[in-house]
Each structure stands twice: as C-alpha cells, then as structure tokens.
Amino acid sequence: MRSYTGKLLRINLSNRKSHIEDIPEQWMKNFLGGRGLAARYLYDELKPGVEPLGPDNKLLLMMGPLGATTAMSVSRMALVTKSPLTGAIAKSVMGGNFGAYLKFAGFDGIIVEGEAEKPTYVHIDKDGVHILDADGLWGLDTQETHVKLRQRHGKSTQVACIGPAGEGLVRYAIIISDRRCGGRTGVGTVMGAKKLKAIAVNSAGPLSVYDPERFKKLAREQIEGLKTSPGRIRMSDFGTAYLTLGYEKVGIFPVKNFQEGHLEDVEKIGDEEFAKIKVKNDGCYGCMTKCGQVRQVTEGSYAGAVSEGPDYETIWALGGNLANTDKASLVAADSLCDRLGIDTVSVGNSIGFAYELFQRGIITKKDTDGLELKWGDHSAMMKLVEKIGNREGFGKLLGEGTKRAAEQIGKGAEDYAMHVKGLELPAYEPRAVKGYGLVLATSNVGAHHMYGRPRDELSGKKDRLTEEDKGKDVAQAEISQATQDAVIQCSFGPVTGFTPQQRSDLLVAATGFDEFGDPAYLDKIGERILCLERSFNVREGFSRKDDTLPKRMQTEPLKNAGPATGQVIRKLDTLLDEYYDALGYTSQGIPSIKKLRQLGLEWAVEDLNL
Length: 610
Ligand code: SF4
Prior knowledge:
Blueprint: E1 7-12, E2 17-22, H1 25-31, H2 34-45, E3 59-62, E4 77-82, E5 89-94, H3 98-104, E6 109-113, E7 120-125, E8 128-133, H4 142-153, E9 158-161, H5 164-167, E10 175-177, E11 180-182, H6 187-193, E12 196-201, H7 212-227, H8 230-238, H9 243-249, H10 271-275, E13 278-282, E14 292-296, E15 306-308, H11 312-317, H12 327-340, H13 344-359, H14 378-390, H15 393-398, H16 402-409, E16 419-420, E17 423-424, H17 434-442, H18 455-458, H19 471-487, H20 493-496, H21 500-511, H22 519-539, H23 551-555, H24 572-583, H25 593-598
Parallel strand pairs: 1-6, 7-12
Antiparallel strand pairs: 1-2, 3-4, 3-6, 4-5, 7-8, 9-12, 10-11, 13-14, 14-15, 16-17
Helix pairs in contact: 1-2, 2-19, 2-22, 7-21, 12-14, 17-19, 19-22, 19-24
C-alpha cells in the first residue's frame, strides 16, 4: 500500500455526474502531489483563453503524498484554477482537516468542472458521491454553512465552502474549512461561478503507508525534534503575529497603502497585545503546533467578536495598511472576512487603495456611499468589508480588485493600485526587502506572499537592500516553495522541522517511490512545477512585461521606514535578467526549449511558439 490513494474524483456540475479515475503513476513521480499534480492536470485540460468564471474553467483540490499520515504538518491542501483576478494560473493552500478526510474517503484530489444550473453542494460518504441541491445553504455565511451541513450529515462532517462573497463573485473570494482558508487568487470566486456552495465529507482513517515500521520511526523522530524547537514553540504561542513589530522596525511592514514604513503605536497590535485576548490554539490536521490563535474581544464596541487570528498578513492588511491600531477591530474584521468568505489580504489592500484615493481627492463621499475614509478609522473599514463581501454600492467596485477598480475610476487611480498581475500585494514592502520584491514581481500567480520566501534576506543574514545577486536566491526560494506545496507541507519552517533528507526519507517510507529519496530529485520537481506554471501563463499571453511591480516601488523613495528610508527599486531589469538566467528562461521570461527538455516538459514546446 502506498500513501497515495492513486484516485482522483472528477465531478461535472453541468450534468451532475461524477466518476473516479486513476492518477498516472508517472505523474505522481514527476509532480509529487498538491500544487504540482494540480498544475499538471490544469495545463493538460484547460484550453488557453478560457474565461475564469465560465463553465470551462476547472477547480482542483489536491492533497499530497504525506497528507493524512502521522507525520506532522503535512496535511494541507492545494487549490488550483485559472484566476479571475489575474487570468493566470492560481494557487492557494488551505489547512484544516478537510484534506485529510478526503484522503480517508479514498481520494488524492478532486477536479470540479462545468457549472451547475442551480446552487449545489457535494456530499461524499461511504455510499458514494452525491450531488445535491443547496436549498437552505445558498446565502448563508461560511460558519452557518458548516453548522447546517453538520446538522444534516453529522457532527464529524468536514466541510469546504464559500460564503456570500463567493456566491456574489467578489473576485478575491476564498474557500474555507472551519476557520482555515484557501485565501488568495480568487479560488472561491471560481467555486461560486460554478454555483458550488460546499463539499462535505464523511469518512474515517487511518491511511496505510508503504513501509509502516520505517515511517513510524521517522515520524517519531520528527515529533521528538519538534517538542523542544524554540521556533515551533513561538509559532504555537503567538502564530505569525510575532512578525509585526520586528518587520515594522526595519521598514518591511507597509503603512498607508505603501506610502511609508512607520506605524505610530504599532505596539498596540503587537504579538504581546494579541496574546492578552487569546483563548486557545487551533489549526490543521496532524499538527502539534496549532499556530491558530483563537482570540476573543471582551470589551468595547467589538465585544463578543471571536476569530482564529488575525495572522501577520491580516494584522497588516486591515491594520497597518490603514494606519489602524485598534486590535479589537482587527479580530472583528478578520471574523467578518471569514464569514463572508473574502481574502483578508486583497480586501485590506483594496480598502487601503480607496483610503489613499480619498486622501488625494480622486474619490469623495459621493463615490463611497457617503463614507469618509480617513487613515486609522476602523468603523469605515468595517463598513467597507461588509459592502465588499455582500457586493453592495462602492463595495461592488472594490470587490473587483484594485486593478479593475482603478481602470474604472480613472483619474490616475492606477498609480495607487498596489498589485502585480492583478493580485494585490501582501504585507511586505518590496523596497525594503528587494529579493522578496523580485518574488512578488515574478510569481506566476501574482503578488502572493507564499510563492517563495528568501529566508536569509528576511532574517537579515543577507543584505535586503542591494539590487544585485538576488536572482539565484529568489529562483531557489520559488523552487523550494513549489516543492513544499507539492508535498504538501506547512510553509512555516520550524513546524515541520525536518531536513531535506528527512523529508525525502519520509516520502520513500510513505510511497515506496525510491526516487523521492534524493532531495535533489525533489528540487527538480519544484523547478518543473514552476516551469509548467510559467508555461501555462505564456500560453495565456504572459511574458516579461507582466513581471513587474507597481510604479510607486520604482519611482518613489520609501518614506519613514527606518534603515529602508529612501529606498527605491532602480534595477528591476537587472534583477529579472538574473532570475531568468538562473531558471534557464529566455530574456522574455519564457522557458527555453533546452530547459523544457531538461525538465521532461518537451511536450509543452509547441504550445509556447518557441
Ligand atoms: S503550523 Fe499552523 S498552518 Fe502550519 S500546519 Fe500547523 S496549524 Fe496548520
């Protein structure tokens, strides 16, 4: 037995039929799982030019070979589709329990295709796959949907669903399972366009592995190592909230829609402050860290608000980015975003964009449904979140994402839209951490905070501000992230704690595929995934011109940002040349024939007009 089930569930919503098919073994060996296998299927099955919100787009939910085993922090799930924000390939990674239970039900992944005539949900149990009407579910928020489905199918039912934002086609809608989101790139919007409200699973483990004794020993070693790991314990105590104060100090934490790098009273939204209102930890299947910080507001106008968060990205998006240091409002807004089913990063970035347009007089109260948008004002932020999630008034425009909203507003608004390829920038100031800026520019899914982390640069071991010798490190960071997303392991390094060789050993013991025993082989898989995703985009018309950063990053010196004050990105072209060179792409950012052949992707050569 292998830890792969080897089975894929294909659901066609147009004809309400499903069937199970085998996953080719060579695909598992070449693409591993998660984001890798999903990219392979999407490339194969999507014709170029498909409308992301039309019936011909597909949504893939894919697990990895270690998922649902006893190894730690490896049971997450990749969500892949063509993005309604960017028109490029999309990826998001969702935690929680859903993926593990999908494997217990016998599937490594699901491909959803077609479009239902009316709101629908899918229930998977021991009797099969049932495609059902979503009467009584459509219109509910994500928490209510979980409650309702558990009333119908039992308390242990695992659910992945969308909220009103996905139903209303807000372009950055999420898929959520309990409080764990597949947040970025609009994967929930695609689910909404297919009129699929939820997938519910009832199943039970355990899952077999190829070499149980060896696997048990390796998993035990992993757990023993993690028990005393300081990095893991810090994640358990604070989640990613611990990043805020350190990053603000060195100018990485963007403020007021990337206008500056210092936030007055930032301590009010620091990790220690959030720790005061922590209730408990929560998190993903098979994780001893449980980085999720469940927090509850007990006083003031947001009393009663509870969320598993906010995490670093959300503290920035709805906090620092708006000069908002009211921590209670952040808990309330985080919870509201989850219930409505919208990505906190894109929503906060879009609201920051609107605040700056208001500051500059490009929009006025006439445009904002009478709301005055002032930096630091969290009550206006809450109203906008609600309007965006429900697609009301001015919120409808912001729910299109900053790129489209700027195009509609005109009057120079595009200069203040902080996105790459249409995906909103996350909580990293590119001018203060330039390798990370290069990741955001080159990412095949747009400005995603989890497309590659140049860790030495972020930790300060390498010079953050130089604009030379970054290409190789960035290429390696993106390769490494692609491999992680294929395994599919948690991206927070300290919580998995294994070395590349230990990870390889676990994979061999789980799958019986000896090839996985060589870490260099896994690196090659990461490079192959990256190259295939880029090929997908090239087929859609993307090239070097799209690997860029907002004008502000290249023309305006960063203000008030500690050691990064005055920084600007002057040599983006040099950085891009280095990056393409490191990956064997042409000067136009297109994989070369030689590279495609090296990676066993020669079948894509014809598609790229090389
Ligand atoms: S550390 Fe957090 S995100 Fe990572 S697997 Fe554990 S609970 Fe999930």
